[in-house]
Amino acid sequence: MKVITMRLSSAIAGALAIVAIPACAWEVIRLSSDPVPATSKEVRETGPFGTIVRNVSDATLTPYVAEKPNGTAVIVAPGGGFHMLSIDNEGEAVAKWLNSQGVTAFVLKYRLLETGADFPLQMMRYLANLPSLRTAVEPLRPLATADGENAVKWVRKNAGRYGIKPNRVGLMGFSAGGAVTVWTLAANKPASRPDFAIAIYPGLLPDAIAVPKKAPPLFVAAAKDDKLAYADSVRLAAAWKGAGASSTIVTYESGGHGFGMKKSGKPSDAWTDAMADWMRGQGLVGK
User: Fold this and answer.
1) Beta pairing partners, 29
2) Contact between 287 and 70 (Cβ < 8 Å)
């Protein structure tokens, strides 16, 4: 394995290292200059929640380059209640689907709460009491926001390497990843503001959603029977429209929370078709 480390000034707060893995034709791009102190190592495992990653203390990006890049890039932030990342269903599988549309994708592993083997029970307790989950996550908010910002800056700065147009860099988040997307947008810094945003059943959004000036076009999708994130999804789209920004929301009668790329035979299975249509209308695919 070849490791290349790039030290940057703290003012830039961008990518600090690139780890190339030639055997897999992948790169793992380190984003955080200040990893969260952790006693547990990052874990990738498969279980009741599918294939997940836990204990992310050092944010990274993994690129998935389209065979025929069309100039558009999407940074994908999986969900998981800040306890885990649904790395396959809401990350890698999404990236591969985006590649089929000619879009180059980057899967973002943003920093999480540290968890142990009993995390499913801990997370289910939090999900039954969302205010307590918001309180637990609040110290992570500036860190996860910085991860989103650094991801956008890194992709835009390195657009030429991947055949990407610097003005076609989007940020897409599922569930808690949707919160990271909204926080990144609310920070409203030109260098790290995505050119378009996608929020799939975003959750844990603040009571007052700050719509940035020059807000980018937004696509939102959610199922009406999603008790965790449907209300936040509707509020997000409405906030964008109320500010005069471009917003499209697609809702489905059923699908629940966390459908991602899994096919369930429910109406929510059609969300990728709706998103592809929206991206086509924005001039992001099909060219």
Assistant:
1) 18, 61
2) yes
**Neighbouring-strand partners of residue 170:** 74, 196
SS3 237: helix
Output b/e per residue, 227-263; b: 16+ Cβ within 10 A: ebbbebbebbbebbeeeebebbbbbbeebbbbbbbbe
Question: Helix H segments across the chain?
Answer: 93-100, 119-127, 130-137, 141-157, 159-162, 176-187, 230-242, 271-281
Report whether pLDDT(77) > 60. Answer: yes
Q: At what angle do helices 130-137 and 119-127 cross, to 10 degrees?
A: 120
pLDDT one-digit tens code per residue, 147-169: 999 999 999 999 999 999 999 99
Alpha-carbon gap, residue 46 to 32, rounded angstroms: 26
Measured CA angle at 27 (ends 199, 216), to 5 deg: 25
Q: Which of 200, 250, 169 is nearest to 90 (CA)?
A: 200
CA–CA separation, 24 and 175 (whole Å): 29
Tokens of 238: 């409405």
The confidence score (pLDDT) of residue 33 equals 67
Q: How far apart are CA 91 and CA 98, in angstroms?
A: 11
Calculate the alpha carbon distances from 253 to 15, 93, 256 in Å. 41, 24, 9
pTM comes to 0.89
Find the distance separating the first CA and the last CA of the chain, reported in whole Å.
37
Residue 62 phi, psi (nearest 5)? -120, 120
Task: Return left, alpha or beta for 194; rule: phi > 0 is left, psi -120 to 50 is alpha, else beta.
Answer: beta
Residues pairing with 19 in the sheet: 3, 28
243 residue type, one letter: A
Residue 95 CA to residue 81 CA, distance in Å, equals: 20
